[in-house]
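Schema walk-through. Below, the input block comes first and the output block second. Nothing else is stored per chain. Lengths vary across the set, and this one has 190 residues.
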Amino acid sequence: MSFKGKQFLALTIEFGPIIGFLISSTFVSFITAASIFVVTTILALIIAQSTQGRLALFPLIAGFSVILGGGATVLYQDSFWLILKDTLYNGAFFLVISGGLLVNKLPLQSLFGSLFHMSDTGWRILSYRWATMFGLLALSNYLVGAYTSEQTWLMYKFGATLVTTMFALYQFTISRKHRLPGSNVWGMVV
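--- output ---
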């Protein structure tokens, strides 16, 4: 498979389930969209395992949270569980990254060190940024989920997904600025 083909497959595996969930939620019930989210997440994990020969830890954690939260939503016929999943997921990453920073550890380096080759300063900046982002996502998801309708939460989820994607892309400026020898121009392991 060509490099572009591999990149397209990786993006499809990464974003296919959430895009499928958000699009399907405009045509079917929240519960049906949640079951589509769970099934496409399981398929994405299977495809990632079969094409890459392994599952990276971060997609595995994200996939497990979707399967658990989405599965509970379908099982109990209640959107609460999938909405709660986002608050718990983002809150957990906020706590892990913030806790790591408090004890002078860099959890993101452990998760993504095989992908990015950059200085500890770069990892520290990235950690502060992502801790802030995850904290804001957890708080905003809680507020929107607890005090608005399913439809409003779905619009929020769409916006939060776009903002998170743009935020993640912007972080390449850090990996580029703090890259170490042996990495490409974006600080990625070559």
